Amino acid sequence: MPAVFAPPAPFPYVPPSCEGYQLALPNSAVAAKIARDFVGVLLRSGAHSGLADDARLCVSEVVSNVYCHTRSKLVRVEVLVGREEVSVHVTNDHAGPPPEPLARPEGESGRGLLVVNGLAASWGSSTRKVKTRRAKTVWFVLTRPGPGPA
């Protein structure tokens, strides 16, 4: 699935048929584990338990990128759980450009977005101005697998 660089903005409201969850945490070496556990608990306790492992891996890769490539003080994880899909937005306050899409898959590092690309139905990134700072968001959407061949 190709990356999309025109975002849905972080959730301004939660539609009545969806549940929204937010987590803000310090940008640290343990942030990816905390975000991974947060998303895993949310999904395993609901109707999307089958998406929990993929969601945990994707959020871990994206939050790790924030830690490795930004100086943001905080990482914000927003999860929207709908009937048919789960959307996750990871936002940081780093003013740098959005991530390069899938550069050098044969390299020693930098494969996190390849993982997200392989698992997500869609994903992308955006930057926007929030008060006096710019915020960068990487988002992905996971959907339930359809029924197999009859």
Topology:
Layout: E1 19-26, H1 31-44, H2 52-69, E2 74-81, E3 85-92, H3 112-119, E4 122-130, E5 133-143
How much of the sequence lies in strands comes to 25-35%
Largest sheet: 5 strands, antiparallel
Kindly name the structural category: alpha+beta
Distance between the terminal alpha carbons, to the nearest Å? 25 Å
Q: Kindly state the mean pLDDT as a whole number?
A: 83
Q: How many β-strands, per DSSP?
A: 5
The largest beta-sheet arranges its strands as 1-2-3-5-4
**Helical content, roughly?**
25-40%
Number of helices, where a helix is a run of at least 4 consecutive DSSP H or I residues: 3
Apparent shape: globular
Run of helices and strands:
EHHEEHEE
Radius of gyration: 15 Å
- As residue ranges, the low-confidence spans are 1-9
Description:
Helix 1 runs antiparallel to helix 2 (52-69) and helix 2 (52-69) packs antiparallel against helix 3. With 150 residues, the chain is an alpha+beta fold. It has three helices and five strands, in the order E-H-H-E-E-H-E-E. The chain has a five-stranded antiparallel β-sheet with strand order 1-2-3-5-4. Strand 4 and strand 5 form a beta hairpin. Helices cover 27% and strands 29% of the residues. The protein has helices spanning 31-44, 52-69, 112-119; strands spanning 19-26, 74-81, 85-92, 122-130, 133-143. Mean pLDDT is 83; it is low at 1-9. The two termini are 25 Å apart.
